[in-house]
Design goal:
Largest sheet: 5 strands, parallel
Strand content: 25-35%
Strand order of the largest sheet: 3-8-2-9-10
Number of helices: 8
CATH topology of one domain: Rossmann fold
Radius of gyration: 18 Å
Number of strands: 11
CATH class of one domain: Alpha Beta
Length: 211
């Protein structure tokens, strides 16, 4: 028997958050590579580019002055200061994609995730699309190993990141899903499963026709 189903599915704003070094960047990079049609919202930052990072691809690199002007103009969906640098996601970066039915991926720190969840509580479009995932490091010892393995920060900065991480980990119950980080392959499979499940939620499906 031949059958055909027509339907439209409301877009997902997939928000991944985690303490620094827990693996959200790796998960995001692998997810985007493995998921055609998933758009990445590019974050703005005032920090300097790291090795190999490209403006407009990895981040929008802004001066402190330009960032402050954007905040004053209400351009940011969320923004926060982290270790002396400012980070933020422009509203237009997300809404323009959701408005055309595109799924959007957003990776932010815990401060940013909290702000986005607050905005989503009063914004019907964001509230309907938001799905939040917390990436939990398997242990504090492993988190420290990963931070040191990046060879990007001084011992003082790593110690500060670990201290902050202990507090940030307490945020996990506020998110919709929890993923305990393991291997990159396992982390990717877990997040792909979450996205697939959310795309199958009946509340997202509209105009269903069975031929």
């Amino acid at each position: 028997m031949n059958a055909a189903v027509e339907r439209s599915v409301a877009p997902v704003l997939l928000l991944i958050t985690a303490p620094s070094g827990a693996g959200k960047t790796t998960v995001g990079r692998n997810l985007l590579a493995a998921t055609p049609g998933l758009d990445r919202a590019v974050t703005c930052t005032t920090r300097a580019p790291r090795g190999g990072e490209q403006a407009g691809v990895d981040y929008h690199f802004l001066s402190q002055d330009d960032f402050a002007k954007g905040v004053a103009a209400g351009e940011f969906l969320e923004h926060a200061e982290v270790y002396g640098n400012r980070y933020g996601t422009r509203v237009a970066e997300v809404r323009s994609r959701l408005d055309t039915g595109r799924d959007v991926f957003l990776s932010v720190d815990v401060q940013g995730a909290a702000f986005i969840r607050q905005r989503a509580a009063v914004d019907p479009v964001l509230g309907a699309s938001l799905v939040s995932v917390f990436i939990l490091p398997p242990s504090l010892a492993e988190l420290e190993r990963r931070l040191r393995g990046r060879n990007e920060d001084s011992a003082e900065v790593i110690a500060r990141r670990l201290a902050v991480a202990r507090a940030e980990i307490e945020y996990w119950p506020k998110c919709d899903y929890l993923v305990v980080s393991a291997t990159p392959e396992e982390d990717l499979a877990a997040v792909k499963g979450i996205l697939a499940a959310e795309k199958s939620r009946t509340r997202r499906v509209h105009n269903l026709i069975l031929h």
